[in-house]
Specification:
Layout: E1 3-4, E2 19-24, H1 28-39, E3 43-49, H2 53-63, E4 67-69, H3 72-76, E5 83-86, H4 93-102, E6 106-109, H5 117-130, E7 134-136, H6 144-153, E8 161-170, H7 184-187, H8 191-206, E9 212-220, H9 222-225, E10 248-255, E11 260-266, E12 275-283, E13 287-293, E14 301-307, E15 310-314, E16 318-319, H10 324-339, H11 353-371, E17 375-376
Parallel strand pairs: 1-16, 2-3, 2-5, 3-4, 5-6, 6-7, 8-11
Antiparallel strand pairs: 8-12, 9-10, 9-17, 10-11, 12-13, 13-14, 14-15
Length: 382
């Protein structure tokens, strides 16, 4: 029998006011946020901002959004919004989030939190000081197979996890050669910050949130700098932008509890991989492997153990429905509602600190790759 794990947060049974949402961004991330908020009960998108006039009008009309803005500043300035949702290039996450948080609005932000850990730390401090929810779109941890594995590991059936491997690899999938994706100033980095941050999040989530203390890494950009690896797509009209990010990275991360993680991320490499996502956990008494081949939704989990001294392998039947962005946004809205009417601080634990740690790890990986030696991961003052 196939098991489908619910991935949305439970809805409240008490009457709640409608949360008014403004969405910034018209591309894949922004439109995905827009559709998720629109589909969920108890929230209404009342404002949308973006700088492509035709796309802005089309989305506003088709999704029934009344107020349309070319500039995000005008949207954030509205005093009737409860939430600002950010789905724009990475370098804009920080200024939009800061303006929203400082004007009293909860923030849902596409990952990464910011292009650097220092900017991410400013966002978290603003959320803490104003006691507002800051959530990040780490939607892949909401997959049903990840949820199943998280529950399976809760009672430590594989023993102490001492090492893990996590990777998101593409054969030829650089997103937008010559666009903001391949410009370090706009993106903050390449596949590590884009794809690797997702599998890093999954691994940390499954391992119980150990703290990464050191990183030793390498990074390469051989294919991207040569204009290859874009999946046959033409170079963007913005090709005057440099390709100054990596197209492949690999890092060894050491945790504060003595365990470790091998993390790899690739947009392009001459390998058999097309779109391959994997997280493997090695425990003292067993192991577990999540393998998503070309966005597969079934047969993604394998569990390893011994029974009476003999090696055993099992494959739980877990179906993975689509809609992971909708799941994380449903949790985000439920968190906001749960805090309304509560005594301060209403949203402790929901100010984005877990996402900040991921940003610090990404910083350390890039620093290690640049200087050619192991570096420490910056911690936060307590």
């Amino acid at each position: 029998m196939t098991t489908t794990i619910p991935t949305t947060a439970p809805t409240t049974t008490t009457e709640t006011r409608e949360l008014r949402v403004g969405v910034v961004g018209l591309g894949f991330a922004g439109s995905t946020h827009l559709d998720a908020f629109t589909a969920l009960p108890g929230a209404r998108v009342v404002a949308l901002a973006g700088q492509e006039p035709a796309r802005l009008q089309e989305l506003g009309t088709s999704r029934g959004v009344e107020h349309l803005y070319a500039d995000w500043q005008d949207l954030v300035a509205r005093d009737d919004l409860d939430v600002v949702s950010i789905g724009v290039p990475n370098s804009l996450h920080h200024p939009i989030a800061m303006a929203a948080l400082e004007s009293g609005k909860h923030v849902f932000c596409e990952k990464p939190l910011a292009v650097t850990g220092d900017l991410a730390a400013e966002m978290v401090r603003a959320a803490e000081e104003n006691d507002l929810v800051l959530e990040v779109a780490y939607n892949h941890r909401r997959r049903a197979d990840v949820a199943f594995l998280h529950d399976y590991l809760r009672d430590s059936p594989i023993g102490e996890i001492y090492h893990a491997r996590a990777s998101w690899l593409r054969r030829s999938g650089i997103p937008g050669l010559g666009s903001w994706f391949t410009d370090r100033q706009a993106a903050g980095g390449g596949p590590l910050i884009d794809l690797g941050s997702h599998v890093l999040d999954i691994a940390l989530h499954l391992m119980g949130e150990p703290r990464v203390v050191t990183a030793s890494a390498v990074a390469y950009g051989e294919l991207g700098r040569a204009g290859r690896g874009g999946g046959g797509k033409p170079v963007s009209a913005l090709s005057d932008r440099p390709f100054d990010v990596e197209d492949f990275s690999s890092a060894l991360l050491r945790f504060d509890d003595g365990s470790s993680l091998q993390l790899q991320a690739s947009w392009a490499s001459y390998s058999k991989v097309h779109e391959d996502i994997e997280v493997e956990l090695l425990g003292a008494t067993g192991g577990a492997r999540l393998h998503v081949d070309d966005y597969s939704t079934d047969g993604t989990l394998t569990l390893y153990s011994d029974v009476n001294g003999a090696p055993t392998v099992s494959k739980p039947a877990v179906h993975v429905p689509s809609g992971h962005h909708q799941s994380v946004i449903a949790e985000f809205l439920a968190t906001i509602r749960a805090g309304e009417g509560a005594s301060a601080p209403r949203y402790a634990g929901h100010h984005g600190s877990y996402a900040l740690h991921r940003s610090r790890v990404v910083d350390a990986i890039y620093e290690s790759a640049a200087i050619g030696r192991e570096v420490e991961v910056q911690g936060e003052a307590r």
